[in-house]
Amino acid sequence: MRSLIALLTLALLAGGPLGAKGQETKKAEKKAEKKAEKKAEKKAEKAPPKVVLSDAEKAAVAAIKKFGGSVLEVAQNDGRLDVTYHLADGKIGDKQLEPLKTIKHIHSLNLRGTEVTDAGLAAIAGLGGLERLHLEKTKVTDKGLAHLKGLSNLQYLNVYGTAVTDAGLKHLSGLKKLKKLYVWETKISEGGIKSIKTAVAGLRVIPDPQIERRRAAIDAKRALAALKIETETSAKKAIDAKKAAATTAKASGDAAKVAADAKTKSDAAAKVAAAAKTKADAAAKTLTDAQAKAKDAKTDDDKKKTAEAVKKATEAKTAADKANADGKKKADDSKKASDAATKAAADAKKKADDSKKASAASTKAAADAKAKFEKASKPPVKKDAKKDAKKDAKKDKKK
Q: Is residue 214 part of a domain?
């Protein structure tokens, strides 16, 4: 009985929620396993082939090195070979390429600046694994590119400074993995570039006139936008500078007026001080004379009169000395105020002059920026149009 109950319980659990969860877990595990298998397969596909050189290949490598070429493995875990002849001391021509026929796993080949001709490229026609090829500054022509038809894995080709033309590019139309093609200083036309790009999807040709024109147009648009901002900024600066110049000019004028008023007051105070000094000097003389008469007086009446005269003269001198001292102080203070006002006026004038120069410079900068922007905004005039304009001008003069 107990065994039966246990069996029924297990059956219920297997068919219930816990059982369903277990099935979902198994499905997820299987999915993860399949994903991992696919990832491993892709990794295996991307991994470089294992390279083991045969005796013949080793002999070919030795021959390349004897000619002055260099042979190196791509990486520690990538046994494919990078072969370069461009740094060799001796002359490198078609004969020196013969050993390449024997080596299967060549990743890149650099023949830059060598004496290799069209005939020499026959030695690399069978290098199906070749991905990069440098032919710049060689004697290769259109005929030589025919030997590249079988390089199905070629991704990079440089024919800079060669005699290659549009006709040679037709030999490359089947290289569907080609990604970069350098054609500087060749006779390849824009039409030829367009044709090869149509034949090989995703190919980037350098230089590409169409892309360069597009880029130049974008750069011109950006430059024009920058010029517009510069023009607007310069115009605003010119306005601000003009306002500042007007403000400083007014301040200079006000300071000059203050200085003129201060000088007038100083001159008036100086005159008052001079008059007070004259009076003080006169009062001192009067006192001296009165004292001399008092000294010579003999009668009581004369003594009384001269004593009163001395007293009045002393009082007058005291008042005159005080007036003289006050006038001198006032004149000194007025002069200091006048000097300070004159200095302030000079500083204000200098500031006004500097502000005026800055305003003139800002105005010129704004005018230059505007002229530059207007020139950049106008489309270039064709030579024929210029000639026509000159002809029209001559006709107008004759009339």
A: no
Q: Between 375 and 186, where is the model more confident? A: 186
Alpha-carbon distance 324 to 332, whole Å?
12
The count of other CB atoms within 10 Å of the CB of residue 224 is 13
CATH number at residue 108: 3.80.10.10
Residue 284 makes CB contacts below 8 A (sequence gap 6+) with 317, 320
Lowest pLDDT segment from 128-142, 189-203, 205-219: 205-219
Q: How many domains does the chain have?
A: 2
Percent of the chain exceeding pLDDT 90 equals 44
Residue 371 burial (CB count, 10 A): 11
Which two structure tokens, joined as six digits, stand for 260? 């003129």
Q: Are 272 and 330 contacting, i.e. CB atoms less than 8 angstroms apart?
A: yes
Phi and psi of 52, rounded to 5°? -125, 115
Distance CA 341, CA 381 (A): 60
Phi-psi region of 252 (alpha: psi -120 to 50; beta: other; left: phi over 0): alpha
Residues 6+ apart with CB under 8 A from 154: 130, 131, 132, 133, 148, 175, 177, 178
Q: What is the CATH number of the domain that holds 250?
A: 1.10.287
Cβ atoms of 227 and 365 within 8 Å: the answer is no
Q: Which structural domain, as residue segments, surrounds residue 263?
A: 228-377
Beta strands per DSSP E along 88-152: 106-110, 132-134
Strand order across the beta sheet in which 70-75 lies: 70-75, 78-84, 106-110, 132-134, 156-158, 180-182, 204-206
